[in-house]
Amino acid sequence: MLNGKIGLAPMADYTDYSYREICRKHGAEFTFTEMISIEALIRNKKESFNMLPKKNEKNIGIQLFGYNINSFIKAAKMVQNNGDWIDINAGCPVKKVIKKGAGSALLNDLNHLEEIIKALKDNVEIPVGVKVRLGFNGDIAERIIESVQKANADYVIVHARTQKQLYSGKADWNRFKDLKKICDIPLGASGDIYSYNDAKKVIEEYNADFAIIARGSIGNPWIFSNFNPGIDDIKNTIIEHAKLMIEEHGEEKAIRRFKKIFIGYTKGLVNAKEIRKKIPYINTYNDLFDIVNTLE
Ligand SMILES: Cc1cc2nc3c(=O)[nH]c(=O)nc-3n(C[C@H](O)[C@H](O)[C@H](O)COP(=O)(O)O)c2cc1C
Fold it and tell me: Does ligand 1 come within 6 angstroms of the Cβ of 9?
């Protein structure tokens, strides 16, 4: 279960199979799927099944979001053979999700969160962890840690912000140190980890057991190995990433989804500004290929 110290965080619309492959290749020790709706799985929605890990993937968590306990059990049972552990999303701050009581809204009802964790622990064969924030409106992280431990979660990952903060301000790494004092299960750190050294720091200085990287990996899979890529590494990886996505999603969807990742890859390049102006006009693999050749 979740072997390793530095892994790739779940990111909706980003961390598909291709993204995970690229990050694994450059050192991500473990990965997660994008968040997958339990209700959509139960309704047999094809797109949700496409988000599940592929057969060759190892050390990967399936992240589920939702509210209803029976739906959680049913969905988790359906997918448990596809991954190494189940991760419960109790951190998503998006309105569409929280208005159904899911994601970070679960932090407003810790009894219910406990019931979900217990139900999954009783009904699935693989480990069950949970990804949380510090709280919904205020920071109640100690109470959250107590709850998830009481429910026998196998690990907890804390994004060191509240729901109310969304992505503003700075993630409060000091809270990892506070929380580790009362946390007997593995504690994962998330939030503003923008380099390999940041990841090492939250582990070595802030006492987290492992770290996950989200935004810092967009267009920078080398973050997982502390490698400084040259222009040819960047060009080759862009092409490799785009080709994998075309295989996974077909050209049209792949190119549409890849554009925002491409912006990440151009960060810091000499002609990034000029290149970015051309991104809206990329519609095919050939359009992308031509532009990649002009990267400096
Ligand atoms: C575009 C995007 C999509 C995200 N999707 C998910 C998700 O599906 N599940 C989840 O638990 N967290 C999700 N997150 C939160 C990240 O996993 C992470 O906790 C947060 O971004 C803070 O880490 P960072 O500073 O490394 O980005 C998402 C974040 C971003 C930026």
Answer: yes
Sign of the alpha-carbon dihedral angle for 219, 220, 224, 229: positive
Which of 13, 132, 159, 161 for a ligand 1 pocket mutation test, highest count of atoms within 8 Å of Cβ? 159
Q: Alpha carbon of 45 to those of 52, 75, 248, 264: distances in Å? A: 12, 12, 17, 30
> Per-residue pLDDT averaged across 80-93, rounded?
98
pLDDT in tens, 101-137: 999 999 999 999 999 999 999 999 999 999 999 999 9
Q: What is the pLDDT of residue 1?
A: 66
Residues 6+ apart with CB under 8 A from 290: none
Determine the atom of ligand 1 nearest the C-alpha atom of 212.
Answer: 26
Is residue 92 among the annotated active site residues?
yes
- Using an 8 Å Cβ cutoff, are 179 and 141 in contact? yes
List residues bridging with 188 in a β-sheet: 157, 210
**C-alpha to C-alpha distance for 25 and 76, rounded to whole angstroms:** 28
Distance 10 CA to ligand 1 centre (A): 6
Q: What is the pLDDT of residues 131-148, one digit of tens each?
A: 999 999 999 999 999 999
Q: Give CA separation, 276 vs 13, 41, 228, 231, 251, in Å.
A: 20, 37, 22, 16, 20
Residue with tokens 């949700």: 48
CA 20 from chain centre, in angstroms, equals 10
Q: Is 165 in the pocket of ligand 1 (CB under 6 A)?
A: no
- Which residue ranges form the domains of the chain, and what is each CATH number? 6-221 (3.20.20.70), 231-292 (1.10.1200.80)
Q: CA quadruple 187, 192, 195, 200: dihedral positive or negative?
A: negative
Give me the phi and psi of 138, to 5 degrees please.
Answer: -110, 170
